[in-house]
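User: We ran a pulldown and think these components assemble together. Before we commit to crystallization trials, I'd like a predicted model of the whole complex to look at. Sequences follow.
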Amino acid sequence: MKITALAGGVGAAKLISGLAGIMAPGDLTVVVNTGDDFRWMGLYICPDLDTMIYTLAGVANPETGWGVAHDSFHCLERLGRLGCDTWFRLGDMDLATHLYRTNRLNEDYRLSEVTRELCRQNGIHHCILPMSDDAVPTRVHTNEGELDFQDYFVRRKCVPHVEGFSYAGADRARPAPGVLAALQESEAIVICPSNPYVSIGPILAVPGIRDALRRASVPVLAVSPIVGGEALKGPAAAMMRQLGASPSAAGIAGLYRDFVSHLVIDRCDEALREEIEAPGMRVILTDTIMRDRSARAALAAKILEILSCPA
Amino acid sequence: MKITALAGGVGAAKLISGLAGIMAPGDLTVVVNTGDDFRWMGLYICPDLDTMIYTLAGVANPETGWGVAHDSFHCLERLGRLGCDTWFRLGDMDLATHLYRTNRLNEDYRLSEVTRELCRQNGIHHCILPMSDDAVPTRVHTNEGELDFQDYFVRRKCVPHVEGFSYAGADRARPAPGVLAALQESEAIVICPSNPYVSIGPILAVPGIRDALRRASVPVLAVSPIVGGEALKGPAAAMMRQLGASPSAAGIAGLYRDFVSHLVIDRCDEALREEIEAPGMRVILTDTIMRDRSARAALAAKILEILSCPA
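Assistant: Here's a predicted model for the assembly, 622 residues in total across the polymer chains.
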């Protein structure tokens, strides 16, 4: 079964690693958020692409959710002594990815091409695509003004009150080569358990992608990133609350109602099933917390089972 | 006494660290070779400036002569796994310097300004200047064709037979701000024990610098980098041989005869004194091998002694 998945950070990478383990390489395409990409010291950094690549390569740091396991920070420490901002924690091995990518982009390769190279060199056989080769930086509108995403997320630790989001340049951006074709040729589409505003939102903001989902005649299955009223990681629930949405799987259903046909929610949210279910929105209960590799595999298998018998 | 020194790599850095330890900060200006600067993975690398800065900051690696002591190579190792050339050994702490410099140059700061910042952040109070803010890359003409300096020096390990040198762009280069003024205002000029072709040669090729030395009415003192017919480090003697010059302090005297008034040679080369001494060229014998800090200090003190009583 050919599947295309939309993916953000750590939760998405876990689910994709589960799917990658049981799907044939040609069958899985992953479209990754690049809305939180940023430049630091001249380096072009793609946090979600990197988390995806490191996780699939088996070198991700399981404790932090970002970076490379057992990395050192000698370069960053010295940059700090040179007076540089070091709030974004870049390890020495991690830096190699950013140096490589930046150098290739400066040589006029496109982000999708560099991503293909990084996947090949990391032994990844599934197709990982950035949502776009064009920059679409997420802006967080807050009570302290408009902030770049990394500024809000890393430096300000999500403290400012969120009033909205925008995706700069989205109107002029094009999906990366292969994204629309993958969506059109898939037998199912998966929305990973990622933040709906700052992981899935930027992908949906790229012209053509949300339309492709709305028009899809195949199942579009989302896994709720909100479990028991909280995000497993990150600020999704807090953002929903601040924006007046219900911080729950039901709130997720509301945000995705125009294109999702199947919503996978955690067993602990069984009470929400009735509130969510509606014509064109089936709810499936299962264990969605991917504590270890076998839990990733189990959720991935469950999703394939649902999609192979979607009615 | 105000002194300006022309400097290349390791030997120069040792002598300058000796001088820096006994001179007042305002009195010492060092003009450093940038002919072997190069770009790697998009980073702008200045080997001689870095060796000078690391040595004066007390963090240089004494074993290699380049890089930072106790550095790790985690980034480089990973770049190697990504398929990159890794013949130039850049450590993780060392990388911080190159990232910082490259980022500043991309922000349109000049190399001399970035060098001033790096000196300040490394606690260096003497004035370190690149020979030029313009690129003047050394080309090595060999029996295998024309090679970039680092290609000849690091990758090819000085194996090709040298037929000559050129300094690309030298005719259009200007001395960095402060270089000519320092030469004009100094009470003495020191040519460090550096390779005459690829360390001092590029500096002399920048328009105005060799002329300033020739016209200088103050002592111009060179320390021979050749001791007992061999370079203490690097390919200077081999290059002299390949180019038909005598690989000796006498050969150095020949190369510098148009501007040097005092040549410091090692005691072991006493037999050469007569051959070298001439009107306008005084020879001083002393211990020139800087095995440790006290030897650096002793040679520096000896030089100051000569210069304070030059006749």
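The mean pLDDT of chain A is 95. That may be worth checking against your pulldown data before setting up trials.

User: Thanks, that helps.
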